[in-house]
Amino acid sequence: MATSTTAPDAGRREPRAGSPARKAARRPRGPRRSLLPYLLLAPAVVLELAIHVIPMVVGVWMSLLELTQFHIRDWSTAPFVGLENYRATLDLNSAAGKELLHSFWVTLVYSLLSVGFAWLLGMAAAVVLQRPFRGRAILRALFLTPYALPVYTAVITWSFLLQRDTGLVNHVLVDQLGLMNERPFWLIGDNSFWSLLVVSVWRNWPFAFLCLMAGLQNVPGEMYEAAAIDGAGFWRRLRSVTLPMLRPVNLVLLLVLFLWTFNDFNTPYVLFGGSAPEQADLISIHIYRSSFKTWDFGSGSAMSVALLLFLLVVSAAYLLITNRRRDDHA
Amino acid sequence: MRETAGERWGRRIVLTLLTLFVTIPLYVMVTSAAKPLQDVQNGFTWWPSRPTLQPFVDMWSTVPLARYLVNSLVVSSIAAICSVAVAIFAAFAVSRYRFRGRGVFSVTVLSTQMFPGILFLLPLFLIYVNLGNATGVELYASRTGLVITYLTFSLPFSIWMLVGYFDSIPRGLDEAAQVDGAGPLRILFQVILPAAVPGVVAVTVYAFMTAWGEVLFASVMTDESSRTLAVGLQGYSTQFNVYWNQVMAASLVVSIPVVAGFLALQRYFVAGLTAGAVK
User: In the CATH hierarchy, which top-level class contains the domain A95-295?
Assistant: First the structure.
């Protein structure tokens, strides 16, 4: 999604039934009282409906129409074609279907690798910055900077670094270290996938770091003391104290990062200047380009809805599996 | 608990590698902004051959940067202020009242933030265009349309973070005010908000950053007159030339305010995350 911060499960936050304010709020006090929370929520609900819920419903409806360039100016004339758009775009024997499938695999590998590396770096930084030392605050601020930068300035800077003739990367690899004889292209061809991955990790790992740092603040120092007295070394403490204590944070963090990178549009769009090479053709870019190139919004919507369904299934499966495991441990 | 020699060296190596990884692009951004054009056209140099501030002057005339900057400032500020105002009321309701639909509201609002942006883009584009044709309300290619779109992008996380803050303010304060005869709105404005100022400021900065950095909708929903920085900065590459020194100078200028704001308030973001996610 276009926004850029976490949104873990607030529904889990159950009321503390015992507190006196809750009791007071629950006590019926006439109709005015019970209407108040709804009035307070009304602006947020109206906005969410207008910008998220209604467009989503419209999107599903659009995916059932033959909404090509001939009907886009007045979409009430677009004929209803049922699941035809889905059949056409998801037909894996057609050229469009093959491209979509390719884009799907690229996106999946990209997301898994990006989340994995972002988590590893965030974890490493959070653990080594857990103990206070001189300069810790400066390093923490420095590490958060890539995430605080507007995404386009971060990615534009990387695209400068990755230029074939004027970039830092080739200057170091070819001119200074002499590792290669030819100056490779980083933004087209096979290398473009790895470039995209590095840029996305650079940009996202500070978010993992921020969340894990917040999580580590809740681990009582005595637990480490106790583990140390029992003779646990660094890795043992990491495995038996840190990771179990961070489990709730990690559950949410990994899912959120995965959904973001899977839906990532900004990084490839800015890095490759509006398009993406085949090797780095992420799904959002793929849908965007095929929609605005042909002005076939019907099949664009069908692909978007299919993408949403896939992500819903993955998220539901993830939550089910992780919840079951938690029950097993209990 | 003492740190072993191995741990100390491990820490130093990890910190050095991470610092290099983070700093090199930042270093290139800063130094390249002070390079004359030939330094960024013929091979890479670690240091400007002749440090100059000329790119910071030229960047305003190569593209209409001032207009993009004003557009981004207007859109992001209004979106941030509106988003926080709406979020304050919603968070107050969720934090202080039990009501039917409370759980559904929280889950729905938060889950929309996880959905692919491309899913909303095509319908919203058509809705804005058709609404403009039908009623004359110009949302497509206007700053108003962007404000409305962006304010909902930051809304879910703003509500969620503010609920965390409001929950941490003791309910005893509410009750004391209630005994004094204060109504719900007076409790919100005179008791809760003053105690939650850091949270409100952090959420405002977050909402501003969200709008300031948005690319996807900006690339479709704007025209030349309403273009924001997110799209406008790509204008420095012409068919023949990329003014990398000016791009880096402009990037630096538009990054500094949000980076400074984020870093100044980082501990409140951590507190907000801790209040919500870790519980």
Answer: mainly alpha
